[in-house]
Each structure stands twice: as structure tokens, then as C-alpha cells.
Amino acid sequence: MTLQHDETLEQIYQLLDSLPSEVLFKPDRMTPDQSNEWHKTRSTQHLIAECWKSKFIIKSGYYPIDEALDRKDISKCKAELIRLSVDELKARWELYQVAEKYVKNAHEFLQYFTHYAKNFPKPISHLWEKLLDKELLKPYPFTSAYELFAETVKEAVDHSILISLEKYYEVPIRKWGKASRFFVEILERADSDGVYPKLDSIEESKFKNYLSWDKVTFSWSGMTLWVCQIEASNDPLLRDRLITYHKTFKDVLIKTVKASRKVHGFKWENGQIVPASGRGGVYR
């Protein structure tokens, strides 16, 4: 193990412990619900960071979440989800070390077509405009695999805070649970190269509905996994790390689905959490 490797593991620890981003916390402008969401997310991130440090830096064999579990600060399900998330983050980091050069090449390649996107067939041009156009108009923003990895971690953690700041945003727990279960099926059907199966039109429509497709926007994690799908069969190391990542990600999804079974949907409206009467649609 090199000094540089040790320094990067420490850097990841610092990243995990710094989220959600401090710039999003504005107590003088936040409602109690929004402030609570930020602090709750920061508390979870601190536990994830400490578990990362314990497992990969100190290597003590001790998980700090055990104390939180004893104090009943978290449930057994959440403790297990944190353990699985730490393994997923490690597998993601190892994947991105190989994948970043391909993501950079793909970004540069796709930039060439930005000026012609409006001439594409409508389904493609609409998809391009929705997911790629804004990012491709800008230069590739990363200088290392770590920067790409860090951005995907920030995207995921900051998301829950950003939606709380929206004037109106529905969080359809039931639909997202179905999306997670569907993606588990996709991962289980992936071939020996880690490439996802081709969905038929009915499956694709169903998956988009579960995801609440109108809410889906560009993400660097999605971009990276898409590029990995293209390159996995050509790079044995990328393929092996993609397969390992899929396993850890699938474990997280399965546990997330289990944890959300009794959780009701809700919406953010003007900074307030408005719960649904069930996991789906009618709000109190």
C-alpha cells in the first residue's frame, strides 16, 4: 500500500464527513423541517465516514455504528445499510480509478455532436436535451478519478437537501421502491461482462414510470455507469471492477427496499414536510 493510497483514503474520509455540503445549510433561511433534514443527513454521513475510517484506514475491526445501535440512535436496518454503503463506496472508488479515462473520452466525443443534436430524431434529441446538453456545453470538469468520484458522492448526498429547498417536490417512496427492485432484477440479468440486458419497450416504460422520469436529470454517476457499459467488454480490469461494484450496489438496493417498506411517501411544500396518507399519493 502506497502513501498516496493512504492519503486518498483519508481524503475520502474527509469528503464523507463534510457532506451534505456546508453551502446548503442556511439556518436563517431554512424552516425547521429543512434544517432537521440537513442535520439528520450530516449525522448519517458522519457515521458512514467513521465506518470508512475504521474499516479502511485504521483497520480496527470495530464499527462505530455499534455504539449508535446500542444507544438506539439508529435501527438495525439503518446500521446494516450503513455497513453496505461503505462497501459500495469502496467498490465505486476502485471502479472509478479505471473508468475515469473512459468517461473523459466519452465526454469529449459527445461534445462534438452538441451542435447537431437538434437535428437528431425527436426521441434522441429530447433525451439529449434532458440529460446531456447542459453538461456537454461545458469543458470536462475533472482532472482525476478522485474528483469524478467525489462529485458523484456529493450529487447523491446533496440531493435530499436540494429537494427540500424546492418550492414543491413529491417524494414517491412506493414508486422509488419499485424502481430499486426493478434495477436489482436488471443487475441480476446482467451478462458476464457486467452489461445490462436490453429492455423491451414495456419494461423501459415501466422503469421510467417507477423512476418518475420527469424528475430524472443528468448525473455523473449515471454517465459513468453508462460509459462502463460500453467499455466493459474491452477492458478486463474495468469489467471485473464493474461486476464487483454491481454486487455491492445490489446489496444496498435490496436493503434500501426493505428499509422503505413501512415508509410513507411525502412531499416538500414551501419548506414543510407534508406526509401522504399511504406510501403513495393522497396528502394530508
Structure description:
This protein has 11 helices and 3 strands. The model has no long low-confidence stretch (mean pLDDT 88). It is mainly α and 284 residues long. Helix 4 crosses helix 10. The chain has a 3-stranded antiparallel beta sheet, covered by helices on one side. The protein is globular, with a radius of gyration of 20 Å.
Which tags fit this structure?
64% helix; three-stranded antiparallel sheet; 4% strand; 284 residues; mainly alpha
Q: What's this entry about, in short?
A:
The chain is mainly alpha-helical and 284 residues long.
Q: How are the SSEs placed, and which strands pair?
A:
Blueprint: H1 3-17, H2 32-58, H3 65-70, H4 76-111, H5 122-131, H6 133-136, H7 145-164, E1 168-171, H8 173-189, H9 201-211, H10 220-231, H11 236-259, E2 266-269, E3 272-275
Antiparallel strand pairs: 1-2, 2-3
Helix pairs in contact: 1-2, 2-4, 2-7, 4-7, 4-10, 4-11, 8-9, 8-11
